[in-house]
Amino acid sequence: MKDGIDMASYAQSWLGLVRVIHQVEAELARVMQSAHGLGLSEYRALAALAKAPDSELRMQDLATHLQLNQSSVSRMVERLERAELSVRDVCPDDKRGVYTVLTQKGRACLAAAEVDYEKTLEAAMKAHGCQAWLSVAMAHAQ
Amino acid sequence: MKDGIDMASYAQSWLGLVRVIHQVEAELARVMQSAHGLGLSEYRALAALAKAPDSELRMQDLATHLQLNQSSVSRMVERLERAELSVRDVCPDDKRGVYTVLTQKGRACLAAAEVDYEKTLEAAMKAHGCQAWLSVAMAHAQ
DNA sequence: CACCCGCTTGCATGGGCATACATATATCAA
DNA sequence: TTGATATATGTATGCCCATGCAAGCGGGTG
């Protein structure tokens, strides 16, 4: 951090960043919910599952990926199961573990939602002028 | 958006950005709650009130500033009042309006919390390497 | 009067914390 | 080695809180 920047403006800028992220996330959530009946966390869980080997992940891994509490993930997976987008499966080598496995329906739902997600994201970011942050994010992730 | 960037990595970078913001916000919330009994929105409401003329704001203004629903603000102000950090006051020229006014106790609470907030913010950002985003945010806010 | 606007309130939802429970692993005694 | 006990780990559940939406209520405005 540069010396010339005082704390107050530091906090102020942070607030600005948080506000924009919040708006874009809210827009994403609104679209996902109304167009596909998916919460944002649910959509991201599906996306994570689709990318995982065998389309399955353990609760903990989902929790880490989604930055959610383990209990929240447990309930989110419950919702996914009610919608038949995933099924639970026991972990053969560790009977404490539970896999959440993407179903065909889940994969189809994801495929349908993905388009809207990405379109909405791009539009919202354009609307809020935050491509600049994104390029930093890309550099950050290498 | 550049042509060479495909949608998937676009979304991926966004996810990275959201994750980091979320972690820092969570850390801030944890510290504010444990050290001062304040939720993040509550802290930010106090800060907004302190900066406002006469240390008072109407519900709508708070809602805009905090990016919260009006109903959420109504209840948040209720919490502030229970903690005696603010008081409601009717708007003399428009009796529909309600001012939330910072109390002495509220001002004191804010002063105490501000230090921790800024210290925590700086530390968390350093820990997650997101000064780069902040500088973009500053440029964004001029 | 009819209509709008600002706030509040009922309700539903998603999330976190603490806890319960089952399984896994380590340690120790005989 | 075997068995017993303590501890750690992975999930699920109870409870509470903050938030959003929609409806209600009351004051303003034409």
Fold blueprint:
The structure is a homodimer of 142-residue chains.
Chain A: H1 7-36, H2 40-51, E1 56-58, H3 59-66, H4 70-82, E2 86-90, E3 98-102, H5 104-128, H6 131-140
Antiparallel strand pairs in A: 1-3, 2-3
The structure holds a DNA duplex (30 and 30 nucleotides).
Descriptive notes:
The first copy, chain A, is built from 6 helices and 3 strands, in the order H-H-E-H-H-E-E-H-H. Chain A has helices spanning 7-36, 40-51, 59-66, 70-82, 104-128, 131-140, and strands at 56-58, 86-90, 98-102. Chain A has a 3-stranded antiparallel beta sheet. In chain A, strand 2 (86-90) and strand 3 form a beta hairpin. In chain A, helix 2 crosses helix 5 and helix 3 (59-66) crosses helix 4. The longest helix of chain A is centred in the first third of the chain and has 30 residues, at 7-36. The interface between A and B is large, with 41 and 42 residues. The first copy, chain A, binds a DNA duplex (30 and 30 nucleotides) through residues 39, 41, 58-60, 68-76, 78-79, 91, 94-98.
